[in-house]
Amino acid sequence: MRIRKKVNGTAERPRLSVYRSNLEIYCQLVDDTKGHTLAAADSRGVSNGTKIEQAAAVGKAIAEKAKAAGIETIVFDRGGYLYHGRVKALADAAREGGLNF
C-alpha cells in the first residue's frame, strides 16, 4: 500500500508493475487512470539461463513492447520486493532497452 500510494501510472507515463514468484517473473505496464494493461511480459516462454538472466530477458521484452506502443517514460513499481536480484535485473534490462525511469 505504501508503494501504491506514491506510485501512480498515467497514459503518458504508465506504471511498470513487477510480480515475482518462486519460479517465474511477470511485469506489465498499467495505466491507472483507466485501469488498463498496456503491455505485459513474463518469463514463462524463457526456459534457458538462471532466474536473473530470465528476468533480464523479460525486461528487454517489456521495453520492446513499450517502444512498439509508443511509450518511453515509465514509473517503476517494484511491488514491495527489494530492489535486488531479479527485480534489479529486470529494471536494468528495461533501461538498456530504452525505457526511462
Overall description:
This protein is an alpha+beta fold. Helices cover 34% and strands 23% of the residues. Strand 1 (15-20) and strand 2 (25-31) form a beta hairpin. The radius of gyration is 12 Å and the shape is globular. The model has no long low-confidence stretch (mean pLDDT 92).
Protein traits:
4-stranded mixed β-sheet; 23% strand; alpha+beta
What's the layout of helices and strands?
Blueprint: H1 2-6, E1 15-20, E2 25-31, E3 36-42, H2 51-68, E4 75-77, H3 86-96
Parallel strand pairs: 1-4
Antiparallel strand pairs: 1-2, 2-3
User: Structural class from helices and strands?
Assistant: alpha+beta
Q: How much helix, percentage-wise, in residues? A: 25-40%
Low-pLDDT regions: none
- Alpha carbon gap, first and last residue: 21 Å
Strand order, largest beta sheet:
3-2-1-4
Can you count the helices? 3
SSE string, helices as H and strands as E: HEEEHEH
Can you summarize the main beta sheet?
A: 4 strands, mixed
Please compute the radius of gyration using only Cα atoms: 12 Å
Instruction: Find the count of extended strands (DSSP E, 2+ residues).
Output: 4
Mean pLDDT score:
92
> What is the beta-strand fraction?
15-25%
- What's the overall geometry? globular
Briefly characterize the structure.
It contains three helices and four strands. The protein is an alpha+beta fold and 101 residues long.
